[in-house]
Amino acid sequence: MTIEQVTENKKQYMDLLFLADEQEEMIDRYLEEGDMFVLKDPDVVGECVVVDLGSGEFEIKNIATAEEVHGKGYGRALIDFVKEHYRGRCRLLLVGTGDSPLTVPFYQKCGFTEHHRVKDFFTENYDHPIFEAGVQLVDMVYLAQEL
C-alpha cells in the first residue's frame, strides 16, 4: 500500500470523488486548491482532498474508498496519513459530512468529535436530495480533531 500526492489531472479520479460528493460543481469549488492524495494497493482504491483554511486549520473536503474495499482499513489509513502529513502545520483538522449512520461513526472511531453544524447545507447547496444509508442528508456535521 502506498499513498501519493496528485498535483495535476486531479479530475481523472472523479469516479472516486463522486463517491463522497455527488455533484461536480461542488467538487470544483475545492479540487484545484486542495492537496490530493491517492492510496494504491496496487491500483488506486482511495483518495483524499485536503484544503488549508488558514490559521493552522485544515479541512478534509473529500475522502473516499472504492466500494469493493470498504471495511478493509483504507479509509483509516488515509486519515492517519493526513494527520501525520500535516502535523506541525495543522492545529485543527476538520471534516464535514452528512449526519449519516455510516460516516459520523467512522470519523468518531478515527478520533474526531463533533465541532459544529451548518443547518440545511445539503438541501441549500445541492441540486438534488442526497441520501446515505436510507437517510436524507440535510445538515452538514463538522467534526474536528486537534493535532
Write the layout of secondary structure elements.
Blueprint: E1 2-6, H1 14-20, H2 24-28, E2 35-40, E3 44-54, E4 57-65, H3 74-86, E5 92-98, H4 103-109, E6 113-118, H5 121-125, E7 131-132, E8 135-136, E9 140-146
Parallel strand pairs: 4-5
Antiparallel strand pairs: 1-2, 2-3, 3-4, 5-9, 6-9, 7-8
Structure description:
By secondary structure, the protein is an alpha+beta fold. The chain has a single domain (2-146), classed as 3-Layer(aba) Sandwich (Aminopeptidase). It is built from 5 helices and 9 strands. The strands form 2 sheets. The chain has a 7-stranded mixed β-sheet with strand order 1-2-3-4-5-9-6, sandwiched between helices. The chain has a two-stranded antiparallel sheet with strand order 7-8. A hairpin with a 2-residue loop joins strand 7 and strand 8. The two termini are 24 Å apart.
Structural class: alpha+beta
In spatial order, strands of the major sheet run 1-2-3-4-5-9-6
The CATH architecture classification is 3-Layer(aba) Sandwich
Q: SSE order in H/E notation?
A: EHHEEEHEHEHEEE
Percent helix among the residues? 25-40%
Strand content: 35-45%
In CATH terms, what is the fold-level topology?
A: Aminopeptidase
**Termini Cα gap:** 24 Å
What's the mean pLDDT score?
96
